[in-house]
């Protein structure tokens, strides 16, 4: 939008008298990296207006305090709003947003379009209309009906849960979807670039080993053909002497001394990597799920783990007392050394590929909580193909976390998972021996490079 429109939106929100949460991202206003709010705006809306750069939109729309959503009418935003029964004011700009908006107003009747020139008086009137007792109440009733229809659809096996026949064990929801990313354009470019780079290369080096992904490697080789050989030279972390010393974050080695005091296989190691972020509510649920499990645990709580908290997040009140003697919290850990420690019996991970391979190498079963990208695919393999762990699915809740930890670390089912993890560990050791598939792949890679 231009600067005049931005000012009208601000005054419209101010004059409406309603509480609001407004996302003012960088470059929202054309030609301005960071838009300046009108003079006196913040004082005028103090206590009822919150302005932020970006929001966890699904969580916001699901919040009981949210009654309506002013949106551009992008399809993902429309669906998220429908799923939560939230009414919409639509201001479409281009492409499918126009069609989506027409359906919101004329077909589903769960909102309306804000048409014409943006003026504060028009914005104020639109907000009052949506929040009103008559027309607004009728729209809310229709929105709730639509929300219930969505819920009934999700009770059945949804399209997202449908198996991908060509790529077992994957489900549709596991596939790479650029539209789920903050920068969809960049995600599409990454996908296109990776495809172009691979097809134009003289060979492909893969951080895996033959015994782990035999049919998948066969399919890749069939797809690329003889002109682009594939070299499975993993796990790479065992082919270098650097190990954890290559970490970008400072490691707290006191956790190794703490592990030395614990019984073999008793500790759950928890780390979501260097990129994944969680909401404050999710962080609290993880904390109390770990506490309530009764198990010893080592938890990596890095700065920036919680969305909106730049430093290290604070642990919930009463948490430290509840887990005294059986918990160690660190900013960062020497992960390969932790996973190799005899006290570690499980690993709750985001299933980044490096973390997954490190866990497989040490024979440590996994709890999987994938967030994006290849993590979704990897977690599916962990649970359904290799059967060396379980996914923690759906909304993070403490009782669900406690149950998952007990399932992994205790009882017959946990013992079976541990046995399969040990068997996979033996296979990876064979691959790394002289004459093993990894060593052979490295030799072939060197010969191939010398021949170019």
Automatic annotation (TrEMBL):
SUPFAM superfamilies, per the entry: UDP-Glycosyltransferase/glycogen phosphorylase
GO CC annotation terms, alphabetical: cytoplasm
Q: Recorded GO terms, molecular function?
A: quercetin 3-O-glucosyltransferase activity; quercetin 7-O-glucosyltransferase activity
Name the domain of life this protein comes from: Eukaryota
Q: Which InterPro entries match?
A: UDP_glucos_trans (IPR002213)
> Has keyword Transferase?
yes
The UniProt keywords, alphabetically, are:
Transferase
Q: Which family does it belong to?
A: Belongs to the UDP-glycosyltransferase family.
Under which name does UniProt file this protein?
A: Os07g0241700 protein
Species of origin reads: Oryza sativa subsp. japonica (Rice)
């Amino acid at each position: 939008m231009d600067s005049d429109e931005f000012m009208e939106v601000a005054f419209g929100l101010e004059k409406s008298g309603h509480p609001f949460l407004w996302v003012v991202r960088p470059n929202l206003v054309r030609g301005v990296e960071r838009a300046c709010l009108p003079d006196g705006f913040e004082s005028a809306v103090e206590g009822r207006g919150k302005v932020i750069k970006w929001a966890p939109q699904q969580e916001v729309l699901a919040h009981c305090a949210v009654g309506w959503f002013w949106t551009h009418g992008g399809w993902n935003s429309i669906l998220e709003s429908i799923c939560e029964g939230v009414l919409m004011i639509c201001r479409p700009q281009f492409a499918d947003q126009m069609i989506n908006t027409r359906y919101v107003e004329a077909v589903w009747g769960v909102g309306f379009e804000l048409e014409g020139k943006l003026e504060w008086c028009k914005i104020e009137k639109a907000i009052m209309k949506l929040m009103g007792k008559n027309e607004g109440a009728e729209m809310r009733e229709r929105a709730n009906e639509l929300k219930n229809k969505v819920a009934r659809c999700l009770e059945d096996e949804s399209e997202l849960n449908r198996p991908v026949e060509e790529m077992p064990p994957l489900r549709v929801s596991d596939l790479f979807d650029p539209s789920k990313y903050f920068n969809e354009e960049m995600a599409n470019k990454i996908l296109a670039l990776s495809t172009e780079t691979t097809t134009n290369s003289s060979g492909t080096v893969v951080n895996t080993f033959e015994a782990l992904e035999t049919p998948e490697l066969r399919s890749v080789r069939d797809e690329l053909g003889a002109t682009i050989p594939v070299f499975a030279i993993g796990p790479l972390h065992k082919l270098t002497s650097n190990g954890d010393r290559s970490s970008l974050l400072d490691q707290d080695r006191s956790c190794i001394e703490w592990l030395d005091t614990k019984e073999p296989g008793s500790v759950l190691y928890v780390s979501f990597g260097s990129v994944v972020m969680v909401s404050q509510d999710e962080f609290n649920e993880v904390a109390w799920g770990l506490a309530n499990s009764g198990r010893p645990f080592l938890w990596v709580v890095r700065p920036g783990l919680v969305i909106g908290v730049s430093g290290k997040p604070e642990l919930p009140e009463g948490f430290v007392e509840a887990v005294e003697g059986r918990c160690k919290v660190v900013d960062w850990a020497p992960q390969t050394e932790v996973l190799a420690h005899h006290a570690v019996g499980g690993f709750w991970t985001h299933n980044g590929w490096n973390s997954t391979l490190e866990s497989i190498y040490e024979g440590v079963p996994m709890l999987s909580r994938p967030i994006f990208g290849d993590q979704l695919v990897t977690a599916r393999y962990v649970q359904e193909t290799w059967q060396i762990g379980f996914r923690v699915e759906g909304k993070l809740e403490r009782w669900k976390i406690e149950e998952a930890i007990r399932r992994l670390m205790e009882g017959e089912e946990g013992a079976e998972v541990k046995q399969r993890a040990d068997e996979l560990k033996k296979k990876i050791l064979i691959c790394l021996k002289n004459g093993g598939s990894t060593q052979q792949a490295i030799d072939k890679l060197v010969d191939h490079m010398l021949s170019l």
